[in-house]
Amino acid sequence: MDVTLAYGETRLSVDLPEGTTVVEPSFHPGAPDQAAYLREVLATPVSGPRLRDRVRPGQTVAISMCDSTRPQPRHLMLPAILEELEGLVDPSDVTVLVATGTHRGNTEAEIRAMVGDELADLLRIVNHDARDRDSLTWVGELGAGVPVWLNTLWVEADVRITTGFVEPHFFAGFSGGPKLVAPGLAALETVLTLHDAARIGDPRATWGVIEGNPVHDDVRAIAAATDVTFAFDVILNRDHEIVRAFCGDILPMHEAAREAAREIAMREVDAPFDVVVTTNSGYPLDQNLYQAVKGMSAAFTVVKPGGTIICAAECRDGFPDHGSYREVLASAGSPQELFDDISARTETVPDQWQVQIQAKIQSQVEVVMHTSFLSDEQLAEAHLRQTDDIGATVREICERIGPDARVCVLPEGPQTIPYVAATVGA
Fold first, then answer.
1. What is the mean pLDDT of residues 58-85?
2. Which of 24, 79, 284, 362 sits between 20 and 30 A of 319, alpha carbons compared?
3. Are 203 and 212 in contact (CB under 8 A)?
4. Among this protein's residues, is 240 annotated catalytic?
């Protein structure tokens, strides 16, 4: 059977055995007039007054938005906000903060691609830098002992607005909402604590779980304690079109958004599989191996112990080369050694969060990659192997297992999160 996988900016066709279980999001068409739909949503918040009723003339505004690794429709969301604030706030008093977390800052060209030339020329757009202490303000110890430093431009603004999109997240439960404050605009020290080995190693730090998830419990606590004025999130389909949008007070807004995302993105299956083929949702999420851990993690939820995950991710940005991710991956003789080493540490560096999860997966199942920009030798450094033909590799594994081999494919990767039993929390 022919299945089309999300891959880079195009798609990848693979021939899989008949009877393969295909798990993908229920498709919802985008709103016919995306801009008009966003204006309607801003007029009817989930909770609290509309944005223009929360702002006084002359106030300064900071808007947090996702970085270039996320397909947020910033070019539609930002104009909707500016229109809502027309007559109250001058564009010169608006600062847009790219919520990079610990990622690299976006280039001028990337920012223009994200928001368009008109907005790039109109607005002050600043990359958050988690490592620049001079650009951060101490706001206190919040949640379960998290030392919180946030971007000073955010803290000092009169009005603080988060914008993002909501989908299941592999250890924070769901993206969007309060994550646009921390880790998005937080200091390295803050993020290291939020994502330490104890928190992300907790079994409740997983797809779709919010309450009792030690990562998201603290993320929500930080947002609640630091006076977010207004929050605005969307849910996207596989074509990155807006299918739903939500706004208002940040925590009630995010609760409504994640329930809608759960309905669209999470799918129950009857039993685990011997082979799970997955992707990393195509560009921009599959631009490096670091991000591809999300696709592996989605597959890991339904693969048998000792089974095989085959992950198709273009990886045009390599490992990537910035940061210590590649170095850490190559620092031990096996995935199990890596996992044990990182789990034993009380402090880690950002790249090790992803390595810890990747090492946990690789120590329990075989992971095979299909990429266009990483060589066999480079993948071997990460204890991975490559296949040029996904369908042939699946058939080889099935022949080895026998006629009862079970195969699953996630064409959209972590846009769909399968689970074996109805144990996903709220």
1. 95
2. 24
3. no
4. no
